[in-house]
Amino acid sequence: MTSPQMAGKTVLVTGATNGIGKVAARVLTQQGARVVIVGRDPAKTERMAAEIGAARFVIADLSVQAQVRQAAKDVLDQEAQLDVLLNNAGMYLNQRQETPDGIEMTWALNHLGYFLLTQELLPLIRATPQARIVNVSSAAHTMGRIRWDDPEFRLGYSGWAAYGQSKLANILFTRELSRRLAGSGITANALHPGMVATGFAHNNGSRISRVFSLLRPFAKTEEQGAQTSIYLSSSPEVAGMSGLYFSNEQPIKPAPQALDDAAAERLWRLSEEYVNR
Ligand SMILES: NC(=O)c1ccc[n+]([C@@H]2O[C@H](COP(=O)([O-])OP(=O)(O)OC[C@H]3O[C@@H](n4cnc5c(N)ncnc54)[C@H](O)[C@@H]3O)[C@@H](O)[C@H]2O)c1
After folding, report:
1. Source organism's superkingdom (predicted)?
2. Residue nearest to atom 25 of ligand 1 (CA)
3. What whole-number percentage of the chain has pLDDT above 90?
4. How remote is the CA of residue 104 from the centroid of ligand 1, in Å?
5. What is the interface pTM, i.e. ipTM, of the complex?
6. Nearest CA to ligand 1 atom 5
7. 202: helix, coil or strand?
8. What mean pLDDT is predicted for residues 148-162?
9. What pLDDT sits at residue 203?
10. What is the Cα–Cα distance from 250 to 246, expressed in whole angstroms?
11. Catalytic residue at 231?
C-alpha cells in the first residue's frame, strides 16, 4: 500500500471553518497531512477541527496583529515543521470598518493578515525543506489598484475597490516573497479559486452580494473551489514552481498591475511599516 500523498507533512490553513478553506483542510487531512486550522470563534473552530479531522486548532482574529503574532507563536512552540502555509482567510466588507489596531479591516485581514502571519512563521517554514506558501487571491485583483496615498480608504470607501486592492496585494506580496525566498527551496504562489458558492459576501445587503446571489447557480461548489488551493499545497506537479498565479490548476497571467516588481517591493516596505508600528 502506498502512503498518502501528504503523510509526514504539516499544513496550516487559515479561514478553515467555512467555504474553500474548510474543504481544503479536510482534503489535505484525507491526503495524510497533519493539519492545523486557524479560526476566530472557539466553539465553532473546535467543532470544525473535529469534523475535518484536523490535528489541532488555533484561535485568532487574523485582522488583529497581536492575535496573528500569538497564533504564530503557538505554531512555532508546538510544531516541529511547517510544510504548507495556506493563507485563505478573507472577507468583503460593504461598509468601512477599523480593527482594534485602527486599520481598515479589508487591508488588515486580507493583506496584512497574510503578510504578518507569513513573516512570523518564516523561521519554521525556512527550517522545513521544500515548504510551500499558498496565498488565496481573486480575479477581483484585475479591478484593483494600490492606493499608495490612502490604502485604508480614509478619503472615501468603496468595498469593491478595497477588496480589489487587497487581492492585488496578495499577488504582489506573493511575487516579492518568492523573489526574497529564491534559492531557499521554499515556494510561494497565489491563486484565484473561481467564483465559488461559499458564505463569502453572502446576504450582507451589498451590490456584490446581490450579484453573487444571481450568479450562484453558475458558481463552483466549495469542493471545486478548493481544488487549486489543494493542488498548490500538495501536488508534485508544482514542486519548485514559485512566484506564479494559478486558476483551475494552471498558471495564468494576472493583470498587468500584478506583474509590477517595483510595486511589489514598495508594497513590502509599506506592509513592514504597518506591522512594525
Ligand atoms: N467565494 C468566492 O467566489 C471567492 C472568489 C475569489 C476569491 N475568494 C477568496 O477565497 C478565500 C476564502 O473565501 P470563501 O469564499 O471560502 O469565504 P467564506 O466566507 O466562506 O470563508 C472565509 C473564512 O475566513 C474566516 N475569517 C474571516 N474573517 C476572519 C478573521 N478576522 N480572522 C480569522 N478568520 C477570518 C471565516 O471565519 C471563514 O472561515 C478568501 O480569501 C476570498 O477572498 C473567494
Report:
1. Bacteria
2. 15
3. 90
4. 17
5. 0.99
6. 195
7. coil
8. 97
9. 63
10. 5
11. no
Cα–Cα distance, 18 to 16 (Å, whole number): 6
Over 70: is that where the pLDDT of 80 sits? Answer: yes
The per-residue pLDDT for 147 is 98
Q: Is the CB of 229 under 6 A from ligand 1?
A: no
The alpha carbon of residue 105 and the mean position of all alpha carbons in its chain are separated, in whole angstroms, by 15
The Cα 15–Cα 66 span in angstroms is 17
C-alpha cell at 137: 487571491
| The three cell numbers locating residue 188 | 510561494
**Helix or strand run (H / E) with residue 245:** strand 245-247
Domain boundaries 10-275, CATH class:
alpha beta
- Kindly report the pTM of this predicted structure: 0.97
**Cα gap 132→121, rounded to integer Å:** 12
| Beta-bridge partners for 34 | 10
108 lines ligand 1 (CB under 6 A): no
Cα 176 to averaged position of ligand 1 atoms, centre (Å): 23
Could you tell me the residue ranges of all domains in the chain?
10-275
pLDDT mean over 43-55: 98
Annotated catalytic residue: which of 163, 231, 245, 274?
163
